[in-house]
Amino acid sequence: MSTKVLLVEDDLWLAELESSILEKAGYSVNVAAHATAAIEAVDRIQPDVIILDLLLTGSTGFALLHELQSYGDTQVIPVIICTNAAEQVSLKDLAQYGVKRIVDKSVMVPSDLVAAVRSVTE
Amino acid sequence: MNVSEGTHDVSQFEMTSLTAAAHELKAPLALMRQLALQLESGDATEEQRRMLQKITLTSERALRLTSDITRSSRLEDALFEVEPLNPEQICRDIVAELGPLFVAHGRSLALTQRTHPLLLVANRELLRRILMNFSDNALHYSEPGTAVALQIQALRKSGRIRIGVRDHGPALSADMWQSLQKRLAKSPQALHARPQSSGLGLYIASQFATAMNGSIGAVRHRDGATFYVELDASRQLSLL
Predict the structure, then answer these.
(1) DSSP assignment, residue A116?
(2) Element (H, E) at B154
(3) Which residues of B touch A (CB under 8 A)?
(4) Whole-complex ipTM
């Protein structure tokens, strides 16, 4: 059974692109466009890893991180932050929220996302 | 914000608005870059591949500017650690990073080699961004087929080290040169350095240099210009 990835990204075109890259790499991908949809998707699909944009429409990625940490079953899901604000956050600060990797959207190449998922799931 | 006239101080309000705009621009620019990278990795003809590479490189150039703007807005809130650095290594990294962009524009970028190593006191990221900005500026204003050179020089009298980016292009007019000199002496301001330039990049470079106790300046040549940053030399080598 393939690894289940929940991609939380409010930019539809970017979500499509990233989904396609991850699916080609063999992952099963679900997309949530905002934090509320992400919580619903976590309950429904029980992802192995969450890729999270921080600057979402509505509640931010930080709010979702807090929410995920407040339940025993969701706090163990590894989170990869994929953001354009990478230089303003640090892995050291976010590790307590289950964040395992930070990927800078503005400099990443497509294979970086696959490598990040692989590094936290294998 | 009217940076094109280069006559007004950049107010806090203007900088805040500019930073917000830079944040907003980052997402679409990053998406354009990602889409171009994805297309580039597929079945494209050689000509299409070259065009896609230009889209990628241009997006990266714009992303660098947005990052510089957001970083600049945080200068007052953050402490930037300075350390003894070898500027040659930073220059080599810049040549490696921007080399493909220069080649795509029919120009080249190289570091003028030195025989003796020098150390200066700087924040690595801020210095890198200043030199990236000067190199980007040189790319824009140098003639096709010419070479842009990164040059490192010890200024013994002042105890400083100067890193310059020398381009070969149309000489700056005397009027523009005088105006630039005045503004460089009174930074921080928007520095209208060249025709069709907003001067924003130089303004940010000036802020970064000031944050490291340094300064920026320019030398006019008959066939182009050298934009430089001067920083304190590290005494570490002389103690050895």
Answers:
(1) H
(2) strand B147-155
(3) 23, 26-27, 29-31, 33-35, 37-38, 41, 60, 63, 66-67, 70-71
(4) 0.75
Q: Kind of pairing, strands A4-8 and A49-52?
A: parallel
CB contact under 8 A, B30 and A106: yes
- B96 by Cβ neighbours in 10 Å (0-12 / 13-18 / 19+) ranks as exposed
Q: Which residue has the tokens 């842009």?
A: B148
Structure-block tokens of residue B240: 């050895």
Closest chain A residue to the Cα of B27, Cα to Cα: A84
Structure tokens belonging to residue B28: 């679409």
Q: Which residues contact B39 (CB under 8 A, 6 or more apart)?
A: B48, B52
SS3 label, residue B215? strand
- Name chain B contacts of A87, Cβ cutoff 8 Å: 67, 70-71
**3-class secondary structure for B3-42?**
CCCCCCCCCHHHHHHHHHHHHHHHHHHHHHHHHHHHHHCC
pLDDT digits (tens, 9 = 90+) for A30-51: 999 998 899 999 999 999 999 9
CA angle (B186, B69, B133) in 5-degree steps: 70
| Residue contact B67–A109, C-beta within 8 A | no
CATH 3.30.565.10, domain B83-239, yes or no: yes
Are the Cβ atoms of B31 and A21 closer than 8 angstroms?
A: no
Long-range contacts of the stretch B9-14 (C-beta < 8 A, 24+): B9/B188, B9/B189, B10/B188, B10/B189, B10/B190, B10/B203
* Amino acid, res. B215: S
- Model confidence pLDDT, tens digit, residues A63-121: 999 999 998 889 999 999 999 888 888 899 999 999 999 999 989 988 899 999 999 99
Q: Any idea what the CATH number is for the domain that residue A88 is in?
A: 3.40.50.2300
Q: Where are the beta strands (DSSP E) in A1-122?
A: 4-8, 28-32, 49-52, 79-83, 99-104
Whether residues A106 and B31 touch (CB distance < 8 A) is answered with no
Q: Residue B223: which residues within 8 A CB-CB, separation 6 or more?
A: B168, B169, B171
**Total domains present in chain A:** 1
